Amino acid sequence: MADKTPDIIYTIVDEAPELASASLLPIVRTFAAAADISVGTRDISLAGRILAAFPDFLNEDQRQGDDLAELGELVKTPDANVIKLPNISASTPQLEEAIAELQAQGYGIPDYPDAPQSDAEKDIRARYDAIKGSAVNPVLREGNSDRRAAKAVKEYAKKYPHSMGDWSADSKTTVAAMPGDDFFANEKSTTITADQAGAAKIVFKARDGGESVLKDGLSYGEGTIVDATFMSAKALRAYIRKEMETTEPGVLFSVHLKATMMKVSDPIIFGHFVSVWLEDFIAKHGAGLDWNPNDGIADLEKQIEGNSEAQADLKAALASRPPLYMVNSDRGITNLHVPSDVIIDASMPALIRAGGKGWGPDDKQADAKCCIPDNSYAGVYDETISYFKQHGKLDVTTCGAVSNVGLMAQKAEEYGSHPTTFEAPGDGTISVVLDSGEVLHSHDVEKGDIWRSCTVNKAPIEDWIALGVRRMKATGQAAFWLDETRAHDAELIKYVEPALKAAGVDIPIMAPREATRFTLDQMRDGQDVVTITGNVLRDYLTDLFPILELGTSAKMLSIVSLMQGGGLFETGAGGSAPKHVEQLVEENHLRWDSLGEFCALGESFKFLADKGNASAVIIGEAVETATQRVLEEERSPKRKAGQPDNRDSHYWFARYWAEALASQSADAGLAGHFAPIAKALAEKEEEILAELMAGQGKPVDLGGYYHADPEKRTAVMRPSKTLNAIIG
Question: pTM of the entire structure?
């Protein structure tokens, strides 16, 4: 008999969120148990996904179930109640680091084959490639996204405004996109009719007449929007050279992509930037290197270590180019070092919040040229920069709140395109061919061009429109971000316009650039706005606007109303914060803020209450009270060692949660249970805080980065014996 699924499932993830869970999750379990609510875990971490993919290489006691696949089935049921924390969307370098760490720990998993030859190597490569990039989110997101700031978070941001950089009208910060021949320009889109529904494949036909199937086994249902497009490699490289050569003196050169979520296309684009940047170096040394520019300069530096001539040539090559935007100027990590450091939805809002400034190699801030090759979304950032040049920085004490309804269910749009994205193997034609023989889409391509197809199904579109209407009615105003001149958006508009007419509501449809200015105008005037967007803009905007108005995107409510009735509660954006882990290891200080987890937890309990657990609503309301007090009494983590950190904030959260439950009158049993806990937490405050602070400033050993030792991690993250004795 299978074990009963826990009432709430908390995901095991990576880096800072997972470290924080070692401290927070025992508290959550203790409090939930008082209301007979079980809290289980499922492992969707990078290390966990690797181990699950290779049971045939592991000992019996090392094998791990495929928790991601299990959750993928659960989210299709009405009973799903999942709290999903940020996980690593691995680039190839991260994947290889995780493999090496697991091998060093005694796991007999194979190496990642860069150039697989045998069938066995091809199978290993396919298993690993399925783990890379956005492998988790498309599986779990069986619903559309509703992201907004909790009221307490928004009010706190107004009362205690974060810093905003000053904008100058003559700022040299700009966005540079390709002049054409990009994904936007080459996109074709159509909606599948009843006669067209069924099987399909993607075929490459070479100019010499040879033909090969790039992808078989596709299936399109009636009403599915199917896109196909490509980016010319030749045009991309010409654009990179031009932008590199025309960068003004003193302006930083930067590239902004999503080489994690777009795990096939964007690493290739990133590699073109690297190889154009280092063209002369590659011409001299490339033949002697086993190096892929897609992996970045950091991997090149490892390969030439000890080769003084190559090291000198690399240094000279970098010095001959414009100064690069730095990911970490203290460590000399440039924008072109590691593809997974190039995350547009984090890097662009940070630069905009800082007044258009980025950090340069001289450890000083400067204006930047921001290269965003594809025009599908570059205009959003270009318009935002133009707006702030015109109006100056945002007043966060008066600005309105911007929320988002995002179309993401069932692997919608570009983020579902990984299995259908290809680097053209030669000159010829790539086509989407239906089972009937009809050619749905076709493009003439040259070797190295990046071709992709993506889809969005009918049911998620209809659900997305309905959710957008509900959120507009609750908030007051909204806009659909759709460009009638873009092929894909034109097909979506065919769904949106009649649905709005049938609902009797008037929500404007605006191209992204126009919608950006509209939203910023309303926001500046103190009005709240719902942005109703596709999948990529959902991702981008739920970092951009929260970082501007709240100072961070990690404090957003992120609710996925699953289409079969379940709930997925994401802990906000903000990534998995590798820098936070570095600081913990070096100084035993974790500045990760668990506010997103607090918000998701409250929503998860309320969802459980709607399913019939009366005690859950009381627990959930107490979570909201505790969250508000953490904010109002400034108990969030501080940045520097010697100051309160993540573990301190968990103590205060537990105390405020217990006090809220002890003081409520709706459930005498819960009040009686938590009264002594609240009393003990208050009486032992000084002792607990001293124990939490005692180890700060000293290095700690976690026993692993991607696959930490559980006992060592617990020892680091639960250092207060007094608190542990009270909580359990």
Answer: 0.84
